[in-house]
Amino acid sequence: MENCQIHKNFSDIYDGIIPKRVPIGAILPLEFCIQYADLDLAETQWTLDGVYEAADELCNMLPLEMAPLGTPRYPAYLTILKAKTYKMGESGFMQHPEIEGMLSEEYPLFNQNPRDFIIQTVFPRLFENWDTDPINRTLLFSQALLAYKDYQTQHLTIVQKLRKNHDFHTPPAGSIGGVTVPFDYLADFLRGFTGITIDVKRRPEMILEACEAVLPFLLEKGLPANPSKYGQTFIPLHMGTYLREKEFKKLYWPSFKKLVQLMADAGQPAYIFCEDDWTRYLDYLQDLPEGTRFCFEYGDPVQIKKKLGHKHILSGLYPIRYLKTATKQECIDKAKKLMDILAPGGNYIFNFDKNPFVIGDVDLDNYKAVLEFVLEYGRYDNSGQKSRETLNREFSQDTLQKGLKYESKYGEFDYSNVDFVGKELGSTVEPILKKYHQEVFNFLIRLV
Length: 448
What we know:
Elements: H1 2-15, H2 30-36, H3 41-47, H4 51-61, H5 75-80, E1 87-88, E2 94-95, H6 107-112, H7 114-126, H8 134-165, E3 176-178, H9 182-202, H10 204-213, H11 215-222, E4 232-237, H12 245-265, E5 270-277, H13 282-285, E6 293-298, H14 301-308, E7 313-316, H15 322-325, H16 328-342, H17 364-377, H18 397-404, H19 426-445
Parallel strand pairs: 3-4, 4-5, 5-6, 6-7
Antiparallel strand pairs: 1-2
Helix pairs in contact: 2-4, 4-8, 9-10, 9-12, 10-12, 11-12, 16-17
């Protein structure tokens, strides 16, 4: 029964209704659970041995409402491909080093056909074992795909077992995704921080064209198999606060807004992590589709509530480091102060400013005390009332296909004329073969 109410609190928020109580969106990552059990961080990310037991113990201890473990990077397939994108450091944490997958003079080639350029040019630069002879490349890619699928299945099995044994909000199957906005994609995987900073000064028009060109690829990457207003696509924002406002307005914002809008038109909300302080861009964020979800790292909660709280769903702003440095009562007082600003009127999910990855950064007693306080203090006396004007979006396959439309030599294949398949079997065979084709491409587009 408790699980039903937890789920309804979240669904009410997404439906634009004030829930009975403020939902709790805090998630404990895989790395935190491993450290809690005093397991070897590096080794356990390979095997996942003991992860369920560690997470289960934490779930019994803490009033969490979202399943732990998150979406970790899988070390096996990254190692098989000799990836430069993410590497495990000596501490056992996965790290994203500065990389350059595209040279500055290659913008015209990229802008002409981003997907093909990524597969043909970027992959060999970012994955050393992609840049080898065709036979070895095929063998290694097959190994990497199998490793990815195996790890994904193992991880999902643990999460599903936790969901079965604890009262968690569970989104619809196949409704969770992740992507970066076009400008951040260029910075993170293609040009690097240094390169994109130079390009902003020297090649702004090339950046603008690239952001528009890569949009369909990122829409494909960000949309899950089953778009749902009760699911979400996670979008971490990186480079926006490093830009001057005129650069942001010209280069960052247009494709960012378009990506979020296209996903909303397909029935999929964005869950946007505003890294750093986005106060100066709140007026822009206000224009995103109704019901967009935000988690803020820093900023003035009063301004954020005033400008966004009537239209969007807010979370974050509680400094996770406070749980280590403050007393239990100070931690509770901090939660009360934040909730007094953000909770009235609904459209609010309690969360910290970031997930805790290092166990030494958090006092678990304080973590528990804050969540228990939210459970009691976060009750509404006007539940059931509307929290915002919601839009009834009709899913449009035409709109979606228009957003996804782009040319690629590695696109969908036509299996209807395959010689060894008789015409009488066409309707049976084609969806089966397309499923495997799509599984391979789902893996490909998630590599970078």
